[in-house]
Amino acid sequence: MSVWKPNVTVAAVIRRDDRFLLVEEETSDGIRLNNPAGHLERGESLTEAVVREALEETAHDFVPTGLLGTYMSIGARGGEEVTWLRFAFTGELGAFHADRRLDDGILRTVWLTLDEVKAAEAEGRLRSPLIVRCLEDSLKRASLPLDAIYTHESVWRS
């Protein structure tokens, strides 16, 4: 009997004027678009994870300013059903590190309007079914303050 456990991910929702920063990445299903996003790793808080993932995938610093929300979906990976639990953060894009290589599989960053992202969704080019909802939510409601997230000190103990 297998144990069910969701895969915890973090995502950065970064907006400049009417465009959102996304990454184009190679996946087992082909080239897909996603928020700068990735898995929570042992020994880090959710905010530390989103800062790390944004840097790894965009070569930019990311300063989270709020928790946009938590999102859940079910999909497939390697023929197995997977539950994704996404913590999406709003924030500010910081310094660009030109000497930094993007994570393996990340081809480039792109700035797209919500309509362009929805068109990509209609074409099956999004990595996650949660992307459009996160972008829409960022336009229609305020994020929670970061102190709404509590990380116990035991997370950083070896």
Automatic annotation (TrEMBL):
Keywords: Hydrolase, Magnesium. Its cofactor is Mg(2+). One of its GO terms (molecular function) is thiamine diphosphate phosphatase activity. CDD domains: NUDIX_Hydrolase (cd03675). Its EC number is 3.6.1.-. It is an enzyme of class 3 (hydrolase). Residues 7-123 form the Nudix hydrolase domain. InterPro entries: NUDIX_hydrolase-like_dom_sf, NUDIX_hydrolase_dom, NudJ. The keyword Phosphoprotein does not apply. Monomer. Belongs to the Nudix hydrolase family. NudJ subfamily. This is Phosphatase NudJ. The gene is nudJ.
